[in-house]
Specification:
mainly alpha; 74% helix; single chain; flat; 250 residues; MetI-like fold
Length: 250
C-alpha cells in the first residue's frame, strides 16, 4: 500500500493545528527546561556537598527515567497523592497540556543540566582569574567570561538535546494532548489509512529537526570565532572567478 495524499486533504487544518501544538511544546520545553537546568548545573559543580548531591541526583534521575514514565507519574500519579487536588499544584496538572510541558521540561532539564555543567567546567580558570584581577564583579565575570565560553562549549550538545526534545514530544499523545502525532492517529482512525498520515507527520518532524539543526549550526558559527573565520574562508574560496584581471598597465 502506498501513500494516498488525496485522503489527507480534508485533514490539513488538523495537521496544521497539531504541528502548532508540537511547536509550542518544543519552545516551552526548551525554555523552561533551561531555566530549571541552570541552577541544577551550578549545584552540580558546587563545592558544597549537599548542593552537589542534589545536582547529581536530579541529573541521574531525570536522565535515566523514561520520559513516558515521568509523564504517567505526573498525570496519573500526582492526583492520587492526598491533598494535591486541593492544592495550587492541581491548577498545573488538571489539564494534559501543562502536564506534558512539565514532564518534557523535567526530562530535558536533566540532560541540559549535564551539558551546562560540563561546559562550565571546561571554561579556563585562568581567564576567570584574569577577569577578577581586572576588576570585574562576580556577575560580570560570569556573564562576559564564564557564560560566553560555556555557550561555545555546550552549543553542540544543546543541539543534540533539541533534536531529542522534538522526538520526545510524540509521547504526549498518550495523555490526550492534540499534538502532531495525535492528529496523525486521528486521521488514521477516520480513514483507516495508516501510511499517509504517519508519513506526513514524519516529514513534518524531519522538517522541524532540519530547521533547528541549521539554526544551531549557525549559532555555533557565530559563537566560535575560529568557525566563523573558517566559514568565511570557505565561502570566499567557493566564489567563481570574477573574470579576467585588469591589466595593471592599462
Amino acid at each position: 500500500m502506498i501513500a494516498d495524499w488525496a485522503t489527507l486533504e480534508p485533514y490539513v487544518p488538523l495537521m496544521i493545528e497539531g504541528t502548532l501544538t508540537t511547536l509550542q511544546l518544543i519552545a516551552l520545553t526548551l525554555v523552561i527546561g533551561f531555566a530549571i537546568a541552570l541552577p541544577v548545573a551550578i549545584a552540580r559543580n558546587s563545592a558544597a556537598r549537599p548542593a552537589k548531591v542534589f545536582g547529581y541526583g536530579f541529573i541521574f534521575f531525570f536522565r535515566g527515567a523514561p520520559l513516558l514514565a515521568i509523564l504517567f507519574l505526573i498525570y496519573y500519579g500526582l492526583p492520587q497523592v492526598p491533598g494535591v487536588t486541593e492544592s495550587p499544584l492541581w491548577l498545573l496538572i488538571e489539564e494534559p497540556f501543562p502536564v506534558a510541558v512539565m514532564a518534557l521540561s523535567l526530562n530535558s532539564a536533566g540532560f541540559q543540566a549535564e551539558i551546562i555543567a560540563g561546559a562550565l567546567r571546561n571554561v579556563p580558570k585562568g581567564e576567570i582569574e584574569a577577569a577578577r584581577a581586572a576588576g570585574f564583579s562576580r556577575m560580570a565575570t560570569f556573564w562576559h567570561v564564564t557564560a560566553a565560553h560555556a555557550a561555545r562549549f555546550g552549543i553542540r550538545g544543546f543541539g543534540n538535546e533539541v533534536v531529542f526534545v522534538v522526538k520526545g514530544t510524540a509521547v504526549v499523545s498518550f495523555i490526550t494532548v492534540h499534538d502532531l502525532m495525535s492528529a496523525a492517529h486521528q486521521i488514521y482512525f477516520n480513514t483507516f489509512d495508516p501510511i499517509t498520515p504517519l508519513l506526513a507527520a514524519a516529514l513534518i518532524y524531519l522538517t522541524i529537526v532540519v530547521i533547528l539543526i541549521r539554526t544551531i549550526r549557525w549559532l555555533e558559527t557565530r559563537l566560535s570565532p575560529e568557525l566563523k573565520v573558517a566559514a568565511s574562508e570557505t565561502a570566499r574560496r567557493s566564489r567563481p572567478a570574477g573574470g579576467p584581471k585588469r591589466n595593471a598597465s592599462a
